[in-house]
Each structure stands twice: as structure tokens, then as C-alpha cells.
Design a protein that fits this description.
The protein is α+β, with helices and mostly antiparallel strands. It has helices at 2-18, 28-37, 47-81, 89-96, 100-137, 157-173, 206-217, 272-286, and strands at residues 140-142, 147-148, 151-153, 178-186, 189-200, 225-230, 238-246, 249-257, 261-268, 287-289. It is elongated. The N and C termini lie far apart (162 Å).
Length: 290
């Protein structure tokens, strides 16, 4: 009984196995929609395998586009960085190297710097020369010897009053450390006397202060004119002479200035050349430096 049942079951199984059951047909569009929606469809057909094959195909199609975009981006980066071989890279490298214009600009800078250095050196040399003259001339003293250059010191009351007036007027405008004044008479005649006035101090601009002294010596109706520079002699500095009209003739004004003294002489009955020569002789006799 038991064996008969088992035999029947085997026969039934064989009969069912021999039958062909038709598979359900799934439209292609339905499969495509299912694949695109991402849902997993369980069928007798390997739909999932076809979906994966499709994705692999898509990946193959997309890869070249990605590689092309990557290469283009690299080319742009290389071009911006100026690397050789990149688009425009060669031009960037060539522009980085100094061209003729850059070399000319460098040469111009060198020329300008050289000129500035030369001016600076010349300026230092000039300042050194002026500084040396100041040191040599600043400590000056003026004396009033009894006799000088054939002249004799005039001790008369009128001469002393005139000298005191001149010293006071000049010292009010030029602040001397020590004012100075003396009158000398010429044995040849009273109309050839010499008046000398001024003072000693540290003078930074000798010519400027000497010009001021000429302005002080000028009067409204008798200005000192035709002022010109003459030889200052061995003591240096600057010396100038000019003339002013007086009754019956003219009066010569000659003065000197250096970094230690300023003085002016009034010469009657003499020309400018004779007055300048006499002033150099008087100066050599009355001025000394420590």
C-alpha cells in the first residue's frame, strides 16, 4: 500500500514535469519602465541582469566624455600656470623672461642711480669744502693798529663820533659778537681819509650779509650803485666795491665778508681799483684768525 502510493506520487510528478507551462510575457516597455524606476522585478527572465548590462553600457558611453572634460580642465589649469606644453603655456614662459624693453628699463635705472650717486658725492664734497672754510674763518678778530698801509689812526673827536655812529647803526641790523670801527687819516690830505666799520661773528652766508651792509650804507638821495665783486686777497671770503654820489664827487664803498667777519670801508678821493687795493692792505694788517 505504501509502495503503491509512492509509485503514484512519482508518476504524478513525472507527468507534471513533462508538461510545458508557458511563461508570462512581459512587454519590453514595461520592463524598461521598471528598470528606469529602479524597482526590482522578479520574473522568470533575467531582467535584473539586463538592467545591469544597460548601466555598464551607459558607464562606457559616459567615460570618454568625463575624460575629455578632465583633459580640457587640465589644459586650462596648465595654461593658467604657464606650464610648457599646455595651451598658451609657451607664451607664458616666454613672457616671463626679460625682453629688450625690460633690459632697457634696467639700464635706465642703473643710469639714474649712477647720476643720483654722483650728485650725492658732489654734494658731500661741497658740504665738506664749506665746512672746512667755516672752521678756518670763524674765529676772527679785528685790530686797530696806529699805522697801516701809510695811514695813521685818527683820534680826533669828530672822527671818533662818526665811527661810533656807524658802529651802532650797523650793529643794530647785524648782531655782531664784537663791533668794530676805526678812522685813518692820509698824510697826503684830509680829503683822503678812510673810515672802517663792521664786526666779528659766525657768518653762515657771507655774501648775503655783505649785500645787507651795502643796503645800510645807502641813503635815499645817495644810494650805493655799480656794485661789483673784486679780488678778496689772501684771506679769502668775498669783497665788493661800489660808489655813491657826494657833493663835488663820489665816495667809494668797499667791503669784505667771510665766515668770521664783515667790514666796510669808505674811501674819499680814490677810484674803485685804488680803494680795493688799499682795503686788502688794511685787512691784512687788522684781521687775524685763531
Amino acid at each position: 500500500m505504501s509502495d503503491a502510493r509512492r509509485s503514484d506520487r512519482h508518476d504524478t510528478a513525472d507527468t507534471e514535469a513533462g508538461k510545458t507551462t508557458p511563461e508570462p510575457t512581459v512587454p519590453a516597455q514595461s520592463r524598461q519602465a521598471t528598470a528606469e524606476s529602479g524597482a526590482i522585478q522578479i520574473t522568470s527572465e533575467p531582467i535584473v541582469l539586463h538592467q545591469r548590462a544597460g548601466r555598464d553600457a551607459d558607464a562606457v558611453d559616459i567615460t570618454p566624455a568625463l575624460n575629455a572634460e578632465h583633459n580640457a580642465g587640465g589644459a586650462e589649469l596648465n595654461s593658467a600656470a604657464g606650464e610648457p606644453g599646455a595651451a598658451g603655456g609657451g607664451e607664458a614662459v616666454r613672457s616671463a623672461s626679460p625682453g629688450p624693453a625690460g633690459r632697457r628699463s634696467s639700464r635706465r635705472r642703473k643710469v639714474v642711480l649712477g647720476a643720483v650717486l654722483a650728485v650725492a658725492v658732489a654734494g658731500v664734497a661741497a658740504l665738506g669744502s664749506v665746512g672746512l672754510r667755516i672752521v678756518q674763518q670763524k674765529d676772527a678778530t679785528l685790530a686797530t693798529p696806529v699805522e697801516v698801509a701809510g695811514l695813521t689812526r685818527d683820534e680826533s673827536q669828530g672822527a671818533q663820533a662818526t665811527i661810533e655812529y656807524l658802529r651802532t647803526a650797523v650793529n643794530a641790523e647785524i648782531n655782531f659778537a664784537e663791533s668794530y670801527g676805526v678812522a685813518y687819516a692820509d698824510p697826503a690830505g684830509p680829503d683822503r681819509s678812510v673810515l672802517l666799520f663792521g664786526g666779528t661773528t659766525l657768518v653762515w652766508q657771507p655774501e648775503r650779509d655783505l649785500d645787507r651792509l651795502f643796503e645800510l650804507a645807502s641813503e635815499e638821495n645817495s644810494p650805493v650803485a655799480d656794485i661789483r665783486e673784486v679780488d678778496a686777497g689772501s684771506l679769502g671770503g668775498i669783497m665788493k666795491c661800489g660808489t655813491a654820489p657826494i657833493d663835488g664827487g663820489e665816495l667809494v664803498f668797499c667791503g669784505w665778508a667771510d665766515h668770521g667777519s664783515i667790514a666796510m670801508g669808505m674811501f674819499a678821493g680814490r677810484s674803485i681799483d685804488e680803494s680795493a687795493r688799499l682795503l686788502r692792505q688794511i685787512r691784512n694788517a687788522v684781521q687775524s684768525r685763531d
